[in-house]
Design brief:
Layout lengths: L7 H27 L4 E14 L2 E8 L3 E9 L16 E5 L5 E4 L5 E8 L4 E9 L4 E7 L1 E2 L12 E2 L6 E2 L8 E5 L5 E13 L5 E7 L4 E4 L19 E2 L2 E10 L3 E7 L6 E3 L2 E3 L39
């Protein structure tokens, strides 16, 4: 028979080499797959709300967002305090899937800041630790991004047909005064109530009007024209009266907002007509879900000894 004939021992040797290579490859793959990983995983969620007559129902659903992971420090590193240019912190980025799930794999142990952002202007963030051989679990809940803080101080009172009540006591379904599209003052039920812990080093503005009315509100809160309260200066008109003084004060505690039914969503806080940060087609805080439990005020009135930003006519 033509050709080279291989001996049985040669074939057996080649077979043993192939088997050995295959076994080694499988073992390496298993070792790599089973070795401890360090990383961050979790879910992104958001509230979706809809108005139903005199109330608003909300549910929490998975969200699609862009997630960034920024390293604050790595364990075991030596911190540099030189005055020269510092290298930028390592950053990873991914997107959550349809179930709101995300994963950062093979992340070095250390401290990190994780943030999520959507194209619609909602975000969330948290500091997270990553330990060697462990995957840190994180759950992020999206809220609307507004610079300068939003909402009212806990000391503000809301106008209702039965008299003013503390904003901390307003509930979905309660009747409050609002302004309709024709500018008339009408009673309407509250669709949603939101409360949010004050941000670190948050400031709040105490606005005094020329007719003596005073309201305390965050800089990012809208007026009825959509202008931010923080953009007002002395002499500007607010609810038909000139602003005579603006004081900027530190604030700790909880800020509040509400959404009356109707086309404008406006309401009177300390007898000053303001807009709302909430709307029927926007996500709101979980506390905006219809509540029947008692909620007490946990806001802290700004200190009278606070530094002030005064503007006089």
């Amino acid at each position: 028979m033509a050709g080279t004939r291989l001996s049985a021992s040669t074939l057996a040797g080649a077979r043993d080499i192939l088997i050995g290579f295959t076994v080694t490859t499988v073992v390496v793959v298993l070792v790599l797959a089973l070795r401890p990983h360090s990383g961050v995983t979790g879910t992104i969620s958001e509230p979706v709300c809809k108005a139903l007559l005199a109330r608003q129902e909300c549910s929490i659903v998975p969200a699609s967002a862009t997630i960034s992971l920024i390293q604050s420090f790595s364990t075991g590193e030596i911190q540099s305090y030189s005055t020269g240019p510092q290298p930028s912190n390592p950053t990873w980025q991914t997107k959550s899937d349809a179930r709101g799930h995300f994963l950062f794999d093979d992340v070095p142990p250390g401290g990190y800041w994780i943030s999520a952002q959507t194209s619609g202007g909602y975000g969330a963030g948290s500091s997270v630790p990553v330990f060697d051989g462990q995957v840190t679990q994180v759950q992020l809940f999206l809220v609307r991004n507004i610079s300068g803080g939003i909402c009212l101080a806990a000391s503000d009172r809301i106008a209702t047909p039965t008299g003013s009540v503390s904003v901390t006591q307003v509930r979905p379904g309660m009747m409050v005064w609002t302004r309709n599209a024709s500018g008339r003052r009408v009673a309407a039920p509250v669709l949603a109530v939101a409360r949010r812990p004050a941000l670190a080093r948050q400031r709040i503005l105490r606005l005094t009007l020329s007719d003596g009315r005073v309201v305390e509100v965050s800089p990012g809160h809208p007026t009825v024209t959509g202008q931010r309260v923080g953009d007002l200066v002395a002499g500007d008109l607010l609810d038909g009266s000139a602003v005579s003084e603006i004081e900027e004060l530190p604030y700790a505690g909880t800020t509040w907002d509400l959404l009356p039914a109707g086309t404008t969503g406006t309401y009177w806080a300390n007898d000053v007509l303001l807009g709302s940060t909430l709307s029927n087609d926007q996500a709101v805080e979980p506390s905006s879900v219809r509540r029947t439990d008692s909620v007490s005020s946990d806001g802290v009135t700004p200190s009278s000894s606070a530094s002030k930003r005064r503007q006089s006519l």
